[in-house]
Write a structure and sequence with these properties.
Layout (H helix, E strand, L loop, with lengths): L9 H18 L20 H15 L8 H12 L4 H8 L4 H7 L4 H11 L19 H6 L4
Helix pairs in contact: 3-4, 4-5
């Protein structure tokens, strides 16, 4: 499987690779290559407890409440849905076999609920774009160009 990477993350990953290459060189024959992105200083898999400590430190540094690392998947899925990314695309990104799993992962945010309630109040035949906020990206214009047959 190929993961899509936001362009903003690429320079950070390249810098991380340089640091990792330096650790590999410093470890010399002690380096164990497991083809990991975030190994220990000697190339071995990181202990779960160490990963957890690093995650908690990152949350604290960011000023975010404590949460499981797995909760970040829910947040990522929800943010993508809020930005108008189709649920099937979110399913692929999260690696779910079934879209129903993705639907359980994502949560409806207030902005989407507000947009839906505003749309319900539109007069029949009114254009949804005229009442669309920045979170609204569901192809209303595309649907008009290519109506279903």
């Amino acid at each position: 499987m190929t993961l899509q990477c936001p362009p903003e993350l690429l320079p950070i990953l390249r810098e991380h690779k340089k640091l990792q290459d330096a650790e590999r060189a410093e470890a010399g024959e002690l380096w164990e290559d497991h083809d990991l992105l975030f190994p220990t200083r000697r190339g071995r898999p990181m202990e779960r407890s160490e990963d957890y400590k690093m995650w908690m430190a990152l949350l604290k540094q960011a000023g975010v409440r404590e949460a499981r690392l797995h909760d970040a998947r829910h947040t990522a899925g929800t943010l993508l849905v809020e930005q108008g990314v189709h649920i099937r695309v979110v399913q692929e990104i999260l690696g779910h076999a079934r879209v129903t799993t993705t639907e359980r992962y994502t949560h409806v945010a207030g902005a989407l609920m507000q947009d839906a309630s505003e749309r319900m109040g539109l007069p029949s035949g009114a254009s949804p774009e005229s009442n669309c906020n920045q979170n609204c990206n569901y192809g209303a214009r595309e649907d008009r160009k290519n109506p279903p047959r």
